[in-house]
Amino acid sequence: MQKPTLTTLLATGLAATALLASSQVLAYSAGDFITRVGVAHVDPKSNNGNLNDGTEVDVRSDTNLGFTLSYLVHDNIGIELLAALPFKHDIRLGGDEIASTKHLPPTLTVQYYPLGGTGSQVQPYAGIGLNYTHFFSESIDVANADLDLDSSWGLAGQLGVDVRLDDHWGLNAAAWYIDIDTDASLNGTDIGTVNVDPWVFMAGISYRF
């Protein structure tokens, strides 16, 4: 059997080194920042509850620009902040679309990257965390009526995936389920609780630096 030549061994060694270096460069690792930008769609659950007088509440969906920033504290563990431009939701009361509100939903999650530290081109992740939703610009088509929705604190769960295109850029898709409940008042009088509890879907691009 012919012994491998020095040239063959050298070429094989260089190829293996290059492949290993490429995998290490592509790998998600501690100290990385990852930002994700995309189209975000907030889809409240179908049954948003009833007011104290029995009126059925239906909060409609909305779409806007969303963005996140993650920091990897470990090859497999990250911390992410979700932010977005304000969402506006039309609200049906008893079947009539007579109210609306805007909100901002910053959400902080701790994430787990099962393939972090490897050169996998596909990097899935899951997260759990805390959401704060601030409602503002509430309005209702009732004469001399002032609608107010309280801010909400709730838990959030997340699933997502990055598909790496190169060392920095990638494609991203993510989904969150967020517990959002708000107490509503009209002219200062409590009228009930609205259970928004939306799924939030986002698709766009990611950039690692």
Short note summarizing the structure:
It contains 1 helix and 14 strands. By secondary structure, the protein is mainly beta.
Descriptive overview:
By secondary structure, the protein is mostly beta strands. The protein has a single domain (6-208), classed as Porin (Beta Barrel), CATH 2.40.160. The protein is built from 1 helix and 14 strands. It has an 8-stranded antiparallel beta barrel with strand order 1-3-4-7-8-10-11-14. Strand 10 and strand 11 (169-178) form a beta hairpin. The longest helix has 21 residues, at 6-26. It starts with 5 loop residues before the first helix and ends with a strand.
Unreliable stretches (pLDDT < 50, length at least 5) are 9-24
Number of helices: 1
- Domains, number: 1
Reported CATH architecture: Beta Barrel
Largest sheet, strands/sense/barrel: 8 strands, antiparallel, barrel
Radius of gyration over all CA atoms, rounded: 24 Å
Task: Give the percentage of residues in beta strands.
Answer: over 45%
CATH class: Mainly Beta
Q: What's the SSE pattern?
A: HEEEEEEEEEEEEEE
- Secondary-structure-based class equals mainly beta
- Overall morphology: elongated
The helix content is: 10-25%
Number of strands: 14
Average of per-residue pLDDT values: 89
Lateral arrangement of strands in the main beta sheet: 1-3-4-7-8-10-11-14
CATH topology: Porin
Cα separation of the termini: 49 Å
